Amino acid sequence: MAHYVVGDVQGCYQELQSLLKKINFNSNKDKLIFAGDLVNRGSESEKVLNFCIKNKNSVRAVLGNHDFYLLYLIEHEKKDKSLKKVLESKNLNKYHSWLKKLPLLIEVKIKESKQTYLISHAGIPFLWTSKDAKKLSKEVTESLKNDSYNLLANIWGDTPKIWSSKLKKYKRLRTIINYFTRMRFLGEDGSLKLDLKSSKPKKGYVRWFEQTKKNLKDNENIIFGHWASLDGKTNLDNIIGLDTGCVWGNKLTAIRLEDKKLFHVKKK
Ligand SMILES: [Mn+2]
Which ranges in 101-250 belong to alpha helices (H)? Predict the structure, then answer.
């Protein structure tokens, strides 16, 4: 049995199938965890969701910003060019209920290596301990369970720019979601700089993992997606980026947690 984490699929179903072949994925014994952004931009988002639901006993995923966008469309707008086939699918209710239950953070402990892996779409800011992050992910999950319509109407926007434990209600939930699903660069105080999307550092801002790495214990690792222009390069062996821009013509990447081996397939 092995645990694999897969980077941003974004509707690239053919490449996902090639990657599963490459890793010899066996849904009866292996576990597959998606680092978010299963859907949108790519042409076969509905097939990716069908695969996840069909294999739901061996598949887990964290929500990415594009998955939130799909949830928003399902509950509010129902119109989008790129996600048309998903929104018109007879399986839409299944997609909805499966996506709604996904967390923002997954923790996997590997017995053999005694390593712990925290998986979230964009990462974890240094402002949170791993215990905080788990608790804050649960707050969003609870809200998606009990109040998704209002939550989804209130998650859009780049403010508040900085986390505070005093934040309440939708401002609080929006900020948690922005850190977990959209973060790239942070100010020195930990404030989000959401309009910077390249991988090049800018004065006054650092890539989130440069700060978070100081918090991690010897056996702790973080796996994230979201940042295609980084092409997986953090230069750290305990904070690993898996978004290698498949939907942009580059490649789809997975990591096997047991030995940290990376697997890639090229965009077809
Ligand atoms: Mn993303």
Answer: 130-153, 169-182, 208-212
